[in-house]
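Note to self: keep these together.
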Amino acid sequence: MPARTPRETATIDRLDRQILHGLTLAPRVPFARLAAVLDVSEQTVARRYQRMRSHGLVRVFGVADRSLLPGTSSWMLRIACRPGTAATTAAALARRTDTSWVAVGAGGAELTCQALVDENSSEGLLAHLPRAANVLSLSTHQVLHRFVGRGEADWITGDDKLGTDQRRELLADESPAPVSPAGIELTPEDRPLLVALAHDGRASYAALAEATGWTQRKAALRLSTLTESGLLRFDLDTSVNALGFRAVAHLWFTISPTDLATVGARLADHTPLAWAAAVTGAASLVAIALCPDAPALYRYLTTDIAAIAEVHTCEAVPVFTRVKQAVSLVENGILRGPVV
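Structure:
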């Protein structure tokens, strides 16, 4: 039986989008608090979230933020493949734990992905890819500074987005004082905890205790310690197709270094952008745009982007197939199991 598509599994309405926005701001917030903010019942929020999750439209996950570890950096990769090999290469990249946001674009011949690179290792992905038989060329771009991404869900617009008072109520007691990561590190003992949270970032302490063999108190304390140190973060994978975005594109900008910070700050106010960062290479800034359709992408490029005089060039590369989100594999536009 062919895999279901988002259109066949569920319809996302205004309340669903509000729930998603709330979970983006506070992924582990109790449903009771989110329900009070939205003025609906706790059962309604729980039921709608479970429906979206079971249909592969959303996954709340916890993941170790390895970019904070010494000697580790984040990179954007553009990979030109031999004809007919892009899908196979993308699938292989998606199964790696050091990759995310794997996509096929540019007529099916180019791949893009983000990768975590251990700068102290000579056997990582950047060393392997140039020797791969399917790879014709490789362009690597280290991520230097992020302008857009993580936490605000700017792709949720208008009345679907929580208001200022709702955000304040939702986030009450949700932001404990950060703990210095000095002396705190991930250990092999944390592996079962991370696996469980990759599958379900909202897993209860009882479920985490069962997965790790710890007591509930130990599971709660360890989760709190890793989260407050920044070594563990929570986020959402969502089906962009189900949310109504049919035109997704990587935008590669060339901008003078003197204007890079200014342009990045302006892009941070652009609703269509899900992510944007300064990078190394010929293109000094890259962004991911989510639009309802091709005409909407055209309007965005010819109005909002065109209004930024400091942008010298903008190469728009459409995403034809998303193979992996942050942690979740994607099949026919819906989320499958995480790679852990």
